[in-house]
Amino acid sequence: MNSDIYLAILVVFSIAILIFRGLRFFSWNRFSMILVLASCMIAIMGYFYSERFAELLRMASGTYLFTIIIFVFADFIVDWISAFRNRARPDKTVLKKAPYLLEISRAFFVMAKQRTGALIVITCKDNLRPHVDGGMEWDAEVRAELLMALFAKSSPLHDGALIIRDGRVKRVKAIINFTSGFKVPFGIGTRHRSAIGITHKTDAVALVVSEERGEVSIASRGALVKVPNEQEFLNLAMRALKGKKLA
Description:
CATH superfamily of the largest domain: DNA integrity scanning protein, DisA, N-terminal domain
Largest sheet: 8 strands, mixed
Distance between the termini: 61 Å
């Protein structure tokens, strides 16, 4: 009987790991294929060992199953608690001076999880026209839903930079002109180079989501800093907009 219980625990444990790893490291499309694979495996086991398999799953229920789930999903639970504790709290300064930052923050961290790249340049005092080419003129309120739609991988406006001026979206799919007259970290992509370049030559603030790494960064005064959560994003973005150094 003990060996049966251990076998049942092993079965559930294996399935839980498969689902967890799929959620953790794969996109939803790939994860759906993993679920199909897992379902096929279970169906095959059920076909050949229907009574035995059902018996094993029944024995693995209750305390054993609860313990396994907690153990397997421990990292996910810790990350969720950490994200909840570090969630963006509406700051009075942000709400008063740059309320659109809350919308950008909300959109950026969703896009980071989805590995959707994005580049937003916020105009301060300097004129960006000498450093920006192409794109389409726009005039819209900054909303998280709009940003996610514009930067969606299926959107024709996905590439290029989105320009914000006076708290509104003013241009999309803009091309940032940058030269090699400044230092950039090794291995960064075009969005990050553009962010460093435009902030090196102007007082603008650039906000970036990495499509490859799923990271959010802020560029100001030619410096690029990664931010781990929404609260830190709001703090550093406000600091940059005030003309202060990021670090």
